[in-house]
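input
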Amino acid sequence: MNPLAIIGRTLIALTREAGAMSLFAWRGVSAALSPPWYWSQLGAQFLRIGYFSLPVVGLTAVFTGAALALNIYTGGARFNAEQFVPNIVVLGITRELGPVLASLMLAGRVSAAMAAEIGAMRVTEQIDALETLSTDPFRFLVGPRILAAVITVPMLVLVADIIGVLGGWAVSTQILDFNGATYIRNTVDFVTQWDVISGLIKAATFGFIIALMGCYHGYRSKRGAQGVGRATTNAVVSAAILIFAANYVLTTLFV
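output
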């Protein structure tokens, strides 16, 4: 066992995977932005990614905002700074927790579903049948999913921001004895347009990652049920890791 050989093989495998993923992403983006478009596929993905994910995103946001308000109040009470609860809640939700937590929930729901669906199509040779019928699988399968995710995830995050702030407001007014009108006024006066826009830019990036990982691992899944299961797991794990990495990079740029 030569340690240098193991390290070399690992680096070569990572480089090969990164190159394959980059080429896949380029083909997917090209298919999403150029005609012909399959509107039925695009509409179906809008429903699956956006509308059907609203309950999960909403519940995540309301409990996140509520817990954030309680924790900020507990920490602020040690320095007599309880009045800053609405300011920190809205900033944390719009810039960080809203985009990241909503995207992680979507990675577990949407990315896994994409990988399983496309992986099953690969296993049952439906993708080969599309190519036989002169239908580009990237335009029919990958492009609509990437385009729908990039558009709908920011919408979901905007809803999550509103629900998360309302969750913090509900806990603050019902449990922590804040005045409701004062809480809302402090929130509106403190938050800026860039706070919301920066979070939506993050959300669009995370949506691209979620769709890309689901399509990539599903499209390259191996034969058999084990291959589809492995592709689904890899899609969720890789999407979550890339979301955290992209969040750090974007936060560094937006500071």
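quick obs: The radius of gyration is 21 Å.
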